[in-house]
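It is time I had a proper look at our fold encoding. Can you supply me with one protein entry, sequence and fold together? It will help me judge whether the discrete encoding reads sensibly. Leave the record below and I will have a look:
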Amino acid sequence: MTLRFETTLSQLNTRIGPLDKNAMAEAQRRWDSIAHPLNSLGMLERDIIRIAGITGDPNVDLSKKAVVAMCADNGVVAEGVTQTGQEVTAIVTENMSKGDTSVCCMARVAGAEVIPVDIGVARPVTGENIRQCCIRRGTANMTKGPAMSREEAAKAVMTGILLVEELKQVGFRLLATGEMGIGNTTTSSAIVSVLLGKDPAEVTGRGAGLTSEGLERKIHAIRTAIAVNQPDSADPLDVLHKVGGLDIAGLAGVFLGGAIHRVPVLVDGFISSAAALVAAAICPAAKDYMLASHASNEPAGRMVLETLGLTPFLHAGMCLGEGTGAVAVMPLLDMAAAVYREMCTFAATDIEAYEHLT
């Protein structure tokens, strides 16, 4: 698998082309023809145009949407970096299968399907809606050595890429990234610390809720993991397997798969943005196929999005994860697409068209 993935890596830049400028120009012309002040829907117009460029089709259709929630456990929880125990990952993963979590409630309103993926939960999980793609039953404690092998990290990334291919084949047109994994803000902070060259204290927050003492333990665990493993910031797969998580690796694959198969993918919060950062480190061209949803309340949430060149729709102080921020943006995109498709044009009314002014 590692050899196959390394070979795929070398081909990504040729497989991921630029956005379709013709489709984007046609989308811009459509917006300009609609009977409204030019660019008055701001970011909504911008992202509909971008989606046209991603898909290569100015006839934007977001009718079939899904949240891909990668679920995995992290051995670093042994260092006391979380408020809850590791068993919560399996419970919430199974609840996702039953439609009984926050993102499931929100997805029903947004008209999106939730697809939980067991890519590394510590115990076997059951549920007819769970994709069984487990690479290993949780990662090792990264303060003692690598979280996983390079081969396991590569396999997790490939899992995400292949899943996007499958979802596109059955008609999904917009994907959101979600996750479930106790301890994954610790692994995300470790990845961001290495890839951005920041001290762990600058990029580490309280996650799902830590005391000041707990936060210090978390920062210490990240510093220890980096010192023990010496991840190479120039080699994103090295960073992933040494101080990352299977959920993050799987999501990095989803972002890469979106770019390969021309499916727009929404970045959720901090953990999802850490995965997006990994994907962009693997293949910079993948950034063009990502859409930001919200700015996470975690300390490095905005920092990572700025690095990726992405501007979020929402600044709502959210840090729940699961894909909730990304799903919250889906109705906004649906409304924008409705105006884009259905609004009457200047030509069809007795209104003089607006002009772009310099």
